[in-house]
TrEMBL record, chain A:
Organism from which the protein derives: Thalassoglobus neptunius
Name used for this protein in its record: Acetolactate synthase small subunit
Catalysed reactions listed for this entry: 2 pyruvate + H(+) = (2S)-2-acetolactate + CO2
GO MF annotations, alphabetized: acetolactate synthase activity; acetolactate synthase regulator activity
GO BP: isoleucine biosynthetic process; L-valine biosynthetic process
Enzyme Commission number(s): 2.2.1.6
PANTHER family on file: ACETOLACTATE SYNTHASE SMALL SUBUNIT, ACETOLACTATE SYNTHASE SMALL SUBUNIT 1, CHLOROPLASTIC
Matching SUPFAM superfamilies: ACT-like
Gene3D superfamilies xrefs: 3.30.70.260, ACT-like. Chain A, domain 2
Domain ACT span(s) in chain numbering: 4-79
Pathway where it operates: Amino-acid biosynthesis; L-isoleucine biosynthesis; L-isoleucine from 2-oxobutanoate: step 1/4; Amino-acid biosynthesis; L-valine biosynthesis; L-valine from pyruvate: step 1/4
UniProtKB/TrEMBL annotation, chain B:
Name of protein: Acetolactate synthase
Documented EC number(s): 2.2.1.6
Lineage, broadest ranks: Bacteria, Pseudomonadati, Planctomycetota, Planctomycetia, Planctomycetales
Co-factor requirement: thiamine diphosphate; Mg(2+)
Superkingdom classification of source: Bacteria
Domain Thiamine pyrophosphate enzyme central, residue spans: 268-403
Co-factor: note: Binds 1 thiamine pyrophosphate per subunit.
């Protein structure tokens, strides 16, 4: 079963190394991992795509939560959420005709051409993984020169979580942590 | 900025410079200023470091190193085991300045200091502290840190680090200790200025020190305890604060929630109902019971409910070992009756345990006839190895207090038949050892130690191997926190330095290190510390001239072929297992001479008839003492369940 985990982590050196080291040392299989800042400069968000049964996922989540710099982990399998991938791809265009055919495809997939050179164009494409895969297949006959893809990022449709967290001194905090999260 | 990887390949390459404000390796290399000379840790004597020459008495002129030491004192630190070197010299200067408030003990190897710190933590409410310089000093601490992680021991490890500006340049005695130790610490800090050239940034780093120390203590002690590392670059140690330092700042740990969890009343009711209905209940108790300070509550509950108690190696002392209700240790070298009882149990009360492979053997077969109630403070232990029917994440002490309040006489299960069965097993398969004439069997030596010392409630430390298991079997502990064993990591050389730490924390108590001739050599240098720091540890050395536990496995599973398990010279026939079966007139090494050269009293004893008096002489001594006891190497630790086996596979002969 494919799970998308979203972890809110403290924006500190070494956090990513800690998390990737833990996942590697416990032999968990990660399909993709994306990291970036959030609206709160104190936190970063990591999005993981993990494949495994419920037992594996339960352990991954608990081991992540055990890391002191990991603030909260959510498994989006139980939640309404939006997922996106981003891709940059360089496609060969030998003729004018090819270029306009490609332009049409890009429009259909709602991507955009971000760079044009003699003999090839660079296309930016974002969307769900399936769409990206479909686009790659569609342009493959033209000749793919190079491509780069990000990992999955995802956000829940429900109310935001990172800005809500401002736990200070843990000895002074009275509210109990939601065990379900 | 976003970075990604696909697949499970090479996660490690992502460490550098991704999305974070700064990383360890993004340091710009500049010309190294002359005051950044780094001295070798062992030849630093006599070299005057000009930057720390002038004495600082003003509060407002504290150095980073002084702030750290004062912050430790503020947290209640009483002792620190610290080995100096180039990158930690300012810390030692600060420790010297505060020597009337905090005792600094100089171990003879950083690993010894690390285990000594564990000795403090494992026997008191204090957090043991060890300190080392950068590079080799820091890496020498790693084994002790990993050991503390495996056994959930709170500990603070402080390492000097090369100045920030040379971090990442492969500077002399530089190791990225935070990177190395990350997987074996509970948490870690590096005290750095965001920009070491910017005075405001350096001041911010100095002001952060008391918060970091406070957080480190808090994280080490609370929840499931563990070791915390603070790596401290020398430039910050030497920088001077330009204002007042707040030694009790608020902590900032948004991702850490160790609140002591109460249990829902419905869960307590379910547990009580399960106990009431059970016919063959067993309490399986581990180190969590000791860490949560719940031995009294556990004992009260076990007594009230009349349920047999078996303990893991870490749990020994949770319930009195000389009480008839105790089934003693379970697992690979546990008693037959405890393993049979767990195997037949219809209800297993697993309190503060983690279903370690040395306990369970084959997981699918372990306690397969019963329901399991698993109570532990660490959520990640729930269903990790063994699925529990009632997983309860709670502080065991709070759970047991609650349980004891609600548990009535009507809830006591009907266990008459169960006890009859257990007592039959106890009678049929007692822990026993042979009569070997005038030879001193290790089991006998420990039994005799127990007889002579139990009324004195000694602290018993052990190394790793046969002597460790014999001690776990034959020393019947009455109290928690009096048995110190490297149970999870199984580190040889644990006993002597740990005993040294215990003695420092409990100067008036009897501290005994039961050790093997293999284990003790791994940290033998600490004999010097015992002598020089006046720590009267008693060492009962069970010397069989072999690595006994490996020999036992060779005998059982490899047709007795000796492969590097004889500890004497290689030209002895016994090096290949072709010896006569006895020992040479002169055993190797000469432990008595060695101890004496360190200034420690010592005696060798080979005859059982002499043993009780020799032991008494050691125990009555008020100085450190090593008793070298020559034991036969043919003894096996029994019972034994081979790795991955079940209670049915138990070997008793």
């Amino acid at each position: 079963m494919r799970h998308v985990l979203s972890a809110l982590v403290m924006n500190q050196p070494g956090v990513l190394a800690h998390i990737s080291g833990m996942l590697a040392s416990r032999a968990y299989n990660i399909d993709s991992l994306a990291v970036g800042p959030t609206e709160n400069e104190k936190f970063s968000r990591m999005t993981f795509v993990v494949k495994g049964d419920d037992h594996v996922l339960d352990q991954v989540r608990k081991q992540l939560e055990k890391i002191v710099t990991v603030v909260r982990v959510v498994d989006y399998i139980q939640e309404e959420h939006v997922e996106r991938d981003l891709m940059l791809i360089k496609v060969e265009t030998k003729t004018r005709l090819e270029r306009s055919e490609l332009k049409e495809l890009v429009d259909i997939f709602r991507g955009s051409i971000v760079d044009v050179s003699a003999g090839h164009v660079m296309i930016e494409m974002s969307g769900q993984e399936r769409k990206i895969e479909a686009f790659i297949e569609a342009v493959r006959p033209f000749g793919i020169l190079e491509m780069a893809r990000t990992g999955r990022i995802a956000l829940s449709r429900s109310n935001s979580m990172s800005s809500a967290i401002e736990v200070g001194d843990p000895t002074h905090s009275s509210d109990n942590v939601d065990q379900a999260v | 900025m976003t970075a990604t990887i696909s697949g499970n390949c090479c996660l490690i390459f992502l460490v550098v410079g991704i999305g974070f404000r700064y990383t360890y390796y993004s340091v710009v290399i500049r010309e190294i200023a002359p005051h950044h000379h780094i001295f070798t840790r062992k030849s630093a004597e006599g070299i005057v470091v000009s930057t720390v020459a002038e004495p600082k008495t003003e509060k407002s002129a504290l150095t980073g190193a002084e702030i750290l030491v004062e912050a430790l004192i503020h947290q209640g630190a009483q002792s620190v085991f610290a080995y100096p070197g180039g990158a930690s010299m300012p810390l030692h200067q600060a420790l010297r300045k505060h020597r009337d408030q905090i005792r600094t003990i100089l171990p003879r190897h950083e690993q010894g200091g690390g285990f000594a710190a564990q000795g403090v933590s494992r026997t008191s409410d204090e957090v043991g502290i060890c300190m080392a310089t950068s590079g080799p000093g820091a890496t020498n601490l790693v084994t002790a840190i990993a050991d503390a992680k495996m056994d959930s021991v709170p500990m603070l490890a402080i390492t000097g680090q090369v100045p920030q500006k040379v971090i990442g340049t492969d500077a002399f005695q530089e190791t990225p200790i935070v990177e190395i130790a990350r997987a074996v610490t509970k948490h870690y800090y590096m005290i750095t200025a965001e920009d070491p050239d910017d005075e405001a940034s350096v001041q911010e780093a100095l002001r952060s020190i008391p918060r970091i120390v406070k957080e480190a203590y808090f994280v080490a002690k609370t929840g499931r305890p563990g070791p915390v590392l603070i790596d401290f670059p020398k430039n910050i140690q030497l920088s001077k604060a330009d204002g007042e330092i707040d030694f009790d700042p608020p902590m900032y740990l948004p991702g850490y929630h160790p609140e002591r969890r109460q249990v829902a009343p419905e869960q307590i009711n379910q547990v009580i109902a399960a106990i009431r209905r059970s016919k063959r209940p067993v309490l399986y108790v581990g180190g969590g019971c000791i860490n949560s300070d719940a031995a009294a509550e556990l004992t009260a509950f076990a007594k009230k409910a009349n349920i047999p108690v078996t303990m893991t190696c870490m749990g020994l002392g949770s319930f009195p070992g000389d009480d008839p209700q105790s089934l003693h240790m379970l697992g690979m070298h546990g008693t037959v009756y405890s393993n049979f009882a767990v195997n037949e149990a219809d209800l297993l009360l697993a309190f503060g345990v983690r279903f370690d492979d040395r306990v369970t053997g084959k997981l699918e077969e372990f306690a397969k006839h019963g329901k399991i109630i698993h109570v532990d403070i660490d959520p990640s232990e729930m269903n990790k190895n063994k699925e529990a029917h009632f997983p309860i994440v709670a502080d065991l002490k709070l759970f047991l207090e609650h349980l004891n309040r609600e548990f009535t006489d009507q809830d006591v299960p009907q266990t008459d038949d169960w006890w009859k069965q257990i007592n039959e097993w106890k009678e049929k398969y007692p822990l026993k050892y042979a009569d070997a004439g005038d030879l001193i069997l290790p089991q006998y030596a420990i039994d005799e130690l127990w007889r002579q010392t139990i009324e004195r409630d000694p602290y018993i430390c052990v190394g790793v191997g046969q002597h460790q298991m014999f001690a776990a079997q034959f020393y019947k502990f009455r109290k928690p926190k009096h048995w110190l064993s490297s149970s999870g990591l199984g580190t040889m050389g644990f006993g002597l330095p740990t005993a040294m730490g215990v003695q420092a924390a409990h100067p008036d108590s009897l501290v005994v290190d039961i050790d093997g001739d293999g284990s003790i050599l791994m940290n033998i240098q600490e004999l010097a510390t015992l002598n020089c720091e006046k720590l009267p540890v008693k060492i009962l050395l069970l010397n069989n001239q072999h690595l006994g536990m490996v020999v036992q496995w060779e005998d059982r599973f490899m047709d007795g072929r000796r492969a590097h398990t004889y500890l004497g010279p290689v030209d002895h026939p016994e090096a290949l297992g072709e010896g006569s079966g006895g020992h040479y007139e002169e055993t190797y090494p000469n432990f008595v001479q060695m101890a004496e050269s360190f200034g420690i009293k010592s005696k060798q004893v080979r005859s059982k008839a002499e043993f009780p008096a020799a032991l008494k002489e050691m125990l009555d001594s008020d100085s450190p003492y090593l008793l070298d006891v020559i034991c036969p190497y043919q003894e096996h630790v029994l019972p034994m369940i081979p790795a991955g086996g079940t209670a049915r596979d138990i070997i008793t002969e």
